[in-house]
Amino acid sequence: MLNLRYDNCLEQTSQGWYLCGDIKKTQVMNHRVPITKEVAEIVEAVIKVIKDQSNTINNPKNYLFVQLEGVRRGRPYNYYDIRRSLKRFTEEQNIVDDSGTPFFIKNHAFRHTKGVELLNNGMNILHVQKWMAHASPEMTLQYAKILDTTMRKSWEEATKQGIFRIDIKNKRPVKVELTDIENEDIIEWEYIRHNLDAVKMELGYCMKPIKQPRPTQVNPCLSCRNFCTTPEFIPKFETEIKEVKNVIERGRVLGRQVWIDKNQTTLERLEPILETLKDGAMHHLAGKKGREYIGEERNHEK
Fold it and tell me: Which candidate, 47, 45, 80, 44, places its Cα nearest to that of 64?
């Protein structure tokens, strides 16, 4: 934000308004972030004010947020200027945490809050990665954290009308009791689908803790214990299998054995998962036990 230039930071396209600037930390030049018309109007107002006050001496590089006087004349406000202002603001407004201790807002908190907001509202993680100009999806996954209490509240809200499954034999809906359920996969499936869209990927959900290393083989998610997918992804798997088979066939025609070998390995991972999903079950090698207490373990406090 502090590196924005008033002469090129705002762009209007047929799709809407964008805020544009260079992110030096990750060397992303002309990074664009979509903004609302209301935000664009505020930026336009700031541009007009600073442009009228700027000249080649007090703002030679056309910074949007610049110090026009003093020892830092012609340079943008720095990290510590903003931090001191935030500290003064929290003291004046008596902002405290749950224990009553003064809460001081760090600059990065705004970025973190926006990232969490986008993910929790269902924005694709790769789009959030691009929005944040992160170098890797792993950096973005740090934002994909939902408190257990928040998840539980959302889950209870979503299921207060009850959960139903179809009895194949009688062809009628049957209510599933949350407190007495034989197949916990039913609840697990609905729970994941409702709560984890924030980390939704092309073929399922990533449930890997951020500090665990990622495997490096081809299509690592298909063999990862923390990859979870449900029957709703059947069309995606069918399309993926069709495309893989097409590549294998092209490899045979062109004599590209490498294509055949790599895609055959992928096919051998895709097809068993698809069969599992067609049986109405979910695929998750780590299973429910890999994340939380199950069965009798839940009753240890009762």
Answer: 47
Q: For residue 35, what are the β-bridge partners?
A: 17
Same domain for 173 and 36, yes or no, is no
Per-residue pLDDT of the chain (302 residues; tens, 9 = 90+): 888 999 999 988 888 899 998 887 777 788 888 888 999 999 999 999 999 999 999 999 999 999 899 888 999 888 888 888 888 988 888 888 888 888 888 877 788 878 877 777 777 777 888 888 887 776 777 766 544 445 556 656 655 655 565 666 676 776 655 554 444 555 555 555 555 443 667 787 776 654 455 544 446 678 787 788 888 889 989 999 998 999 899 889 888 888 888 889 889 999 999 998 888 888 888 765 554 444 444 444 43
3-state SS class at 141: helix
Structurally, how many domains does the chain consist of? Answer: 2
Q: Are 158 and 293 in a shared domain?
A: yes
**54 token code pair:** 């700027």
What 8-state DSSP symbol labels residue 101?
-
Name 34's bridge partners. Answer: 18
- Region of 61 (left: φ > 0; alpha: ψ -120 to 50; beta: rest) is alpha
First vs last Cα of the chain: how many Å apart?
A: 52
Q: Kindly state whether residues 159 and 287 are assigned to the same domain.
A: yes
**Residue whose structure tokens are 């869209």:** 197
The answer to whether residues 26 and 156 belong to one domain is no
In terms of residue numbers, what domain contains 44?
Answer: 1-79
Residues in Cβ contact with 234 at an 8 Å cutoff, skipping those fewer than 6 apart? 274, 277, 278
Whether 206 maps to a domain, the answer reads: yes
For 270, the token pair is 């895709």
